[in-house]
Amino acid sequence: MPLLSVLLLGGCMAGPDYVRPAPPAAAQQPFEEADGRWTPAAPAAADPAVAWWTRYGDPQLDVLVEQADRANQTLRQAEARYRQAQALVGSARAAEAPTLGVQAAATRERSVTPKPGLRDADTLGFSASWEPDFWGKVRRSVEQAGDNAQASAADLAQARLSLQAAVVADYLQLRFDDQTLALYQRTLAGYRDALRLTQARVRAGVASDADVAAAEATLHSTEAASTDLALSRRQLDHALAVLLGRPPSEFSLAASDAPLPALPPTPEALPSVLLQRRPDIAGAERRMAAANAGIGMAVAAWFPTLSLSASGGYDGAGLASLLSVPNRVWAVGAALAGTLFDGGARRAQRAQAQATFDAAAATYRQTVLSAFQGVEDQLAAARELAREQQQQRSAADAAQQAERVLMDQYRAGTALYSAVITAQANALDAQRSLLQVQARQFGAQVALLVALGGDWDSANLPAMRGASPGATPAPVVPE
User: Which GO terms describe its molecular function (predicted)?
Assistant: First the structure.
């Protein structure tokens, strides 16, 4: 009896207890590509509670991200999957409780023996059954469901982060398209002035019709490039509408040639912080915990199960006297069942559970490595693009100066128009390339902020009763 009491009150848990793996030693070192040159961010920018996209200081962008968070259909799918996972936790917990039932029946039957005739047979009863979780199979099931629900919550956070990144990236690219379109308009205005000047020189007999044809060709080809970019902007506008959960016909972002703000600083972070900031890493770790619980469920299948049952009620020959003491009936019982031979099914299930855990552990390690790579890649991109931006700005300034000098020389009659056309093309290409590099800088920073987990933190995962906490770091992941 003392042993039975211990089992009933606490029980044991079959299979290994999950312990969260320790972070790799490299996680305590700075990122290699940071190279000690990260710009310390202002306190507000480094605060995880601050929405990461607000660093760009654009109220319109803030509104768009909020709209996407409310209406994006992909995000709603992820939310529905999380609710499904939560429901599965409740379903798993239900197995811990006893089952209660009620039965009532009223029949009229004819018998031949011992006394022919009709008789009533009425019953009213209650039943209860319970299967004590001696070996922790049900608790492991609850643990697995809780871990999976937390993984689903991390998936939801990852979906939200990806959505935010898509909205921010599309919006910034759209604004750079506006900047490029404004550049085209300024350039076209200059080309039209140059065409009028060339036509006047032809009338004065100091230029040829070939110069006019060349000026017209330059003007029309630039108009075509502007039209092509306008089409790309429209398509980007449509993509942004879908991210906001709206039909493209009902959304249009007005063009703006206002200059974009300076590139905001990026907060410093260590790889160890990254392990807590990335929802995809948290999801992979929770799935590893769920797979560990699956091992316990497979081990528990080797042990017998005990079922306890009780029933009581009334069984009589008529409703009028059904609830009388002579008609009272009751029963209690216990059943112990176990499998002696199953052809190796349980052994195979145990091996399958172990393989599932090994796969989840490998997925977790790969997710961590990919996260480190993503940050290193974007750090390298940020550093090199900053250098490229300076170089391209110098090239654009030089090209514009060359265009001005040659245009003045052409007006004075000391330069050929072919040289002017070449200078115009070089100036336009250099300015357009400068805008493209700046757009890539903003894109790389968005990718870096997302690679750092945005403003998410693993502490945001919802608590699930029964989910393995994994609070003590220890290297249990198989190599």
Answer: efflux transmembrane transporter activity
Query: What does DSSP say about strands 328-337 and 305-316: parallel, antiparallel, or unpaired?
Result: antiparallel
Helix, strand, coil tally for the chain in percent (to 5)? 65, 10, 25
Q: Is 376 helix (H, G, I), strand (E, B) or coil?
A: helix
**Tokens found for residue 295:** 């091992």
Burial 206-222 (b: 16+ CB within 10 A, else e): ebeeebbebbeebbeeb
3-state DSSP of 423-465: HHHHHHHHHHHHHHHHHHHHHHHHHHHHHCCCCCCHHHCCCCC
Instruction: Give CA–CA dist 272/268, Å, rounded.
Output: 12
Angle, helices 417-451/345-411, rounded to nearest 10 degrees: 150
Report the predicted TM-score, pTM, of the whole model to 2 decimal places.
0.84
Across the range 339-367, mean pLDDT stands at 92
CA-nearest of 82, 81, 97 to 139 is 97
Element (H, E) at 401: helix 345-411
Tokens 């002035």 correspond to 193
Classify burial at 365, counting beta carbons within 10 Å of its beta carbon; exposed 0-12, middle 13-18, buried 19 or more.
middle
The two tokens of residue 283 are 């999801």
| Sole residue written with tokens 């992909």 | 74
Hey, which bits of 149-250 come out as E strands?
Answer: none
What backbone phi and psi angles, to 5 degrees, belong to 277?
-95, -15
**pLDDT tens-digit series, residues 103-116:** 877 777 766 666 66
**210-215: average pLDDT:** 95
Reduced to 3 states (helix: H, G, I; strand: E, B; else coil), residue 106 is strand
**Per-residue CA distances from 254 to 58, 234, 237 (Å):** 14, 11, 10
Dig out the tokens for 270 from the structure: 């260590």
Question: In the prediction, which pLDDT does 27 show?
Answer: 59
First to last CA, the chain: 44
Encode burial over 327-362: b for 16+ CB neighbours within 10 A, e otherwise: beeeeeeeeeeeeeeeeeeeeebbeebbebbeebbe
Q: Which residues contact 27 (CB under 8 A, 6 or more apart)?
A: 270, 271, 272, 274, 275
| List of domains in the chain | 2-96+135-303+343-460 (1.20.1600.10), 98-132+304-337 (2.20.200.10)
Question: What six digits make up the tokens of 402?
Answer: 């060359």
